[in-house]
Write a structure and sequence with these properties.
Blueprint (H helix, E strand, L loop, with lengths): L3 E2 L16 H18 L3 E5 L8 H16 L7 E5 L12 H10 L6 E6 H7 L7 H11 L5 E6 L1 E2 L10 E2 L7 H9 L8 E4 L10 H16 L1
Parallel strand pairs: 1-2, 2-3, 3-4, 4-5, 5-8
Antiparallel strand pairs: 6-7
Helix pairs in contact: 1-2
Length: 223
């Protein structure tokens, strides 16, 4: 399984005019979907959107309109996967409630899924590894987990709730190996597409991190 990622300048909350109009975002997203479809990817990950001075209600409306304009002509299997945000650029997109509600209000929710970034969830203060079960129950109550398609698996350089989006290698940050393992081996994450967004190891690869993550699942099978 593979996933694609939209260019970082993509902003779902962009207005309908200006230097980066909504039409530019829509064209870019459709191009990304076409590439993902050709590659057999599950979907394209896109950040929730940055309001950058836009009044919050208008920002949410812009996101919904951008997604609607993008998906109205899209008939492929690849989905648009909204990623939760850490809060380093603003409060928008930090909560599961926002992601679920945006999907619900769009015209084609069946074409929309989610990508959970573990560092972002930790930084935003919505997932405390000491209380993972509460996080799992909360996502279940909201109906978030059935639409989770992918995970960005990252440890965090900074402590819980500081809203700092700085990734650390698996097990070498403030979340830690045990916290990440407990979340990723929980039932909602079974058969999930997982991507690392961490720095390379001493040998220039992610070999050590991949091996560490595989051991989590090997241990689960043995249990």
């Amino acid at each position: 399984m593979s996933i694609a990622h939209t260019p970082y300048p993509t902003n779902l909350a962009a207005a309908g005019d200006g230097t980066t109009p909504r039409a530019v975002m829509v064209a870019s997203l459709l191009n990304d979907l076409e590439i993902a479809e050709a590659c057999g990817s599950l979907g394209i990950v896109v950040h929730f959107g940055h309001f950058s001075g836009i009044e919050p209600l208008q920002g949410y409306q812009n996101i919904i309109q951008c997604i609607n304009d993008t998906l109205k002509s899209w008939d492929g299997q690849a989905k648009l996967l909204i990623e939760n945000q850490a809060g380093n650029h603003g409060k928008e997109g930090m909560t599961l409630e926002e992601l679920v509600k945006i999907r619900e209000l769009c015209r084609d929710p069946e074409k929309i899924g989610f990508c959970l970034d573990t560092c972002h969830a930790f930084a935003a203060g919505i997932w405390n590894p000491l209380h993972t079960e509460e996080f799992l129950q909360h996502g279940e109550a909201l109906g978030y987990w059935p639409h989770l398609v992918a995970v960005h698996l990252n440890d965090s350089m900074y402590a819980f709730g500081l809203r700092k989006d700085r990734h650390a290698q698996i097990g070498k940050g403030c979340i830690g190996d045990a916290g990440l393992r407990n979340l990723l081996t929980a039932q909602p994450f079974s058969r999930m597409a997982i991507a690392l967004e961490t720095g390379k190891g001493p040998d220039g690869t992610h070999r050590q991190e991949i091996a560490a993550v595989r051991k989590w699942y090997e241990a689960e099978v043995q249990l």
